User: Fold this.
Amino acid sequence: MDKTKNLIIVGDSAFAEIAYEYFLHDSNYSISAFSVEEKFIKKASLFGIPVVPFETLPHSHPPKAYDVYVAIPYTQLNRLRTRLAASAKQQGYHLASYISSKSFVWSNVKIGEHCFIFENNTIQPFCNIEDNVILWSGNHIGHHSTIRNNCFISSHVVISGFCDIGENSFLGVNSTLANNITVGQNNWVGPSTTIMKNTPDNAFFKTETAISHKLSSLEFFKL
Assistant:
């Protein structure tokens, strides 16, 4: 793929490394720098690419020449990614998005700015993905559903049709939403949790982990 644009990835964590790989191999972006707030810089470079202070980014990498993606997951319930993306935009940067070539996105789906959509996501007709949303690998986003600003949808989540996911919310691995569900703002839906009715703002849902049986696996199989 021809590299026609220059990108700065904000962050130096595991997600920044992953974003680097996806933008490098499956986009028209060339990665020019990583950027971290100055007091958190711990390394001078990553993958041989410089790590530069976020505060002085417009001087070292002018907004007219570079786009920005903030590769920070759901830290502070998505607040950190949201704050840094807003700051970059205020400084004049265009916010980049990544949509995997191996995702399935129906033609009339609306996708906002600064989104990251991994492989094997299925996004059905009439969906609306707002700004600053991350869809990790393998999710099903049902028809006529909306995912609002600053959400993080982790892997293998099922969002059924006509659902509305409130701003800043997190849906954990293998969580499931029935049809016509509205999830309030700032919700945390833990892994393997099933939501069958509307939720209020600021709700926290947790499914208990599996309980170890008194028999060991070797005893069960008489080994």
Remarks:
- The longest strand covers residues 29-36.
- The chain has a mean pLDDT of 97.
